[in-house]
Amino acid sequence: MNLTLLVLAAGKGSRYGGMKQLDQVGPSGETIMDYSVYDAIRAGFNKVVFVIRRSFEAEFREVFVNRLKDKIQVELVFQELDNLPMNTPFSPEREKPWGTGHAIWVAREHIHGPFAVINADDFYGASAYQTMATYLLDHVAKTTELYAMAGYQLEKTLSEHGHVSRGICTVDDNGFLVDVKEHNAIQRIEGGRIAIVEGERKKRLNPDDIVSMNFWGFAPDIFAKLEEKLLFFLKVNANDLKAEFFIPKVVDEFISSGKIKVRVLPCDASWFGVTYRQDKEMVVEALIQLVASGDYPDNLWK
What is the pLDDT along the chain (302 residues), one digit of tens a residue? Predict the structure, then answer.
């Protein structure tokens, strides 16, 4: 059975200050996406779909797609503001993308089997792809409305250079997701503790809390559900210049209404990402260590 990796790579990297999707961090000029695709291929994925913006298609193809064409089936789809169901009208002043839920929806015509969703700028670890691939084949491919999410410990997903947003999860005794609530301004405070910091207010968090890092496992039936929610979202927010259709919020609503179940797959793999420009040095060093330990070759595609 075919397994597809859907990579959300249409972001502009406002906090990073540039297109971090194409930034070189590996010892031979690899991007984080290179490592994601490499790990996915090792786990059994045989197709990758990138969601990007048309404005950087040429650069994306030159820097990235050409070196993958002989390794895995590659397709591009475009997350543009006017790519909406039923040609829904929206404010002409809108510039901000419609969010991760919309990014997944635009790939609906390119995916016909179980698939995983990841962020372009997150390194999830090889074992996470193996765990997800196994679950997709053994469970998601054989039923409907049963999905998966890779769960990471909060303390392993922070940046030392500023606050982050994380979807903090509640998981039941059977390992299924109860809800996921997005929180902003999460950072380390005095004594190494973790808290949501809003002005003078600090709400302590448990470092062992499970968080969503937007590594999901879905079946194609998710697309029809997303379209229904997206149409409702646009009915309310089409003229809002900043509102976004986020996949964790949509999944949370599906769970609350009893439409789906989501198995949380615990991940002990090393996670790191580049939220801020200063994070790049840490990512480069982490990859050097993984190459030195034999987890990856010093040139992924040689």
Answer: 799 999 999 976 544 445 678 889 999 999 999 999 999 999 999 999 999 999 999 989 988 888 898 999 999 999 999 999 999 999 999 998 899 999 999 999 999 999 999 999 999 999 999 999 999 999 999 988 999 999 999 998 887 777 888 889 999 999 999 999 888 889 888 888 898 888 778 888 999 999 999 999 999 999 999 999 999 999 999 999 999 999 999 999 999 999 999 999 999 877 888 877 888 999 999 999 999 999 999 999 98
Phi, psi (degrees; rounded to nearest 5) at 44: 110, 0
The beta strands (E) that lie in 143-244 are given as 146-153, 164-171, 177-188, 194-198, 201-205, 210-218
Q: Which CATH class is domain 4-292?
A: alpha beta
Q: pTM of the full predicted structure?
A: 0.93
Q: Which residues contact 181 (CB under 8 A, 6 or more apart)?
A: 167, 168, 252
Separation of CA 18 from chain center: 18
**Residue 296 structure tokens:** 């990856």
